[in-house]
Amino acid sequence: MEDEQKSQLIKQGAEAKVYITTLFTKPQLLSPITGQSSVPVKTSSRSDKVLLKYRFPKTYRHPTLSTQLTASRTTAEARALIRCARVGVNTPKIVCVDEEQGVLGLEIVDGYSVRELLGGGSEGEDEYEEEEEVQPSNQIASEELILLTNEEGLVIMRKIGIQLARMHQAHIIHGDLTTSNMMVRRQKGAASIQSAEVVLIDFGLSLNSTSAEDKAVDLYVLQRAFASTHPDSEHLFDEILKAYQDIIENKPVLYDPKVKAEKGTVAGPTHWKEIKRKLDDVRLRGRKRSMVG
Fold first, then answer.
1. What's the fold here for domain 112-292?
2. Phi and psi based region of residue 88 (left: phi greater than 0; alpha: psi -120 to 50; beta: remaining)
3. Among residues 48, 126, 176, 202, which one is catalytic?
4. In the chain, ranges of CATH 1.10.510.10 domains
């Protein structure tokens, strides 16, 4: 399926390695939900290049347990991506899945992370393990990195809020929301940032939950990431929450008309108030934790 000599390691974390490589077979999308195969997937403009996320074995685990956990987590991540796509959340397309080997093939998102575009520093606090970036995005993206202006940054924040609201309306919790896990994909030839897409990536810690507190924790993790990576960014996170609130209160999930809608999606002022109340509670607990160490 791939040429190992042409594989390029771009990131390595505690759970997985991420490569750019070349596929020599024509991939098909296999749905972990239905088990049915669809038409061959067009990955991106770089049709011969794909991103491979490889969950490597853990030597400290029993081999059987390691295999089961790897398969379960790989399948869960693929399912989360499919559910997101159904409700209009921008995520990388799935190219291939090999749950037994812990391999997830994804399209390459041609762009830069929000962290890079905002000129942010490195991420990483005691409670979060930072991934090592082996290859910077300027070796992957087709265009030169140009930092966002303040006005452009606010536009992107609103787009982030919309994506997060749609994701939470489908009861998908990302689990690791940082500005490194959000890519900005510009339309080719477009001068304005208005036409750009925010693409959410890395659903390795995602889960399904209807809990308002789980959604609030998801948002709080992102708020902490902004505080540690982007100083004086309170106004940026506030813009995310405004767009998030607007979608949750007023707009239903946008479904692909060709796909059967997911059950249990929610919207409305009551649900937003519950999420906001839980977010305030989580913030308070976070401040108390910081005070006592």
1. Transferase(Phosphotransferase); domain 1 (1.10.510)
2. left
3. 176
4. 112-292
All CATH 3.30.200.20 domain ranges of the chain, comma separated, are 4-106
Amino acid at 254: L
What residues contact 223, with CB distance under 8 A and at least 6 apart? 237, 283
CA dihedral 204, 208, 211, 216 (to 10 degrees): 30
> How crowded is the C-beta side of 89, counted as CA atoms within 13 Å?
29
pLDDT tens by residue, 101-129: 999 999 999 999 999 999 987 765 544 44
Taking CA atoms, 211 is separated from 84, 172, 173, 278, in Å, by 17, 10, 10, 10
pLDDT number for residue 268: 73
Task: Answer for the pair 228, 234: CB distance below 8 angstroms, yes or no.
Answer: no
Which CATH architecture group holds 4-106? 2-Layer Sandwich (3.30)
Does 2 or 166 have the greater pLDDT score?
166
Which DSSP helix (H) or strand (E) runs through 182? strand 182-185
110 an active-site residue?
Answer: no
pLDDT band for position 142 (cuts 50, 70, 90): confident
- E strand or H helix at 112, and its extent? strand 112-113
Q: What are phi and psi of 217, to 5 degrees?
A: -65, -40
- Give the integer Cα–Cα distance in Å for 177 and 179: 7
Can you say whether the dihedral through the CA atoms of 281, 287, 288, 290 is positive or negative? Answer: positive
The percentage of the chain sitting over the pLDDT mark of 70, rounded to a whole number, equals 76
* SS3 letters across 133-167: ECCCHHHCCCCCCCCCCHHHHHHHHHHHHHHHHHH
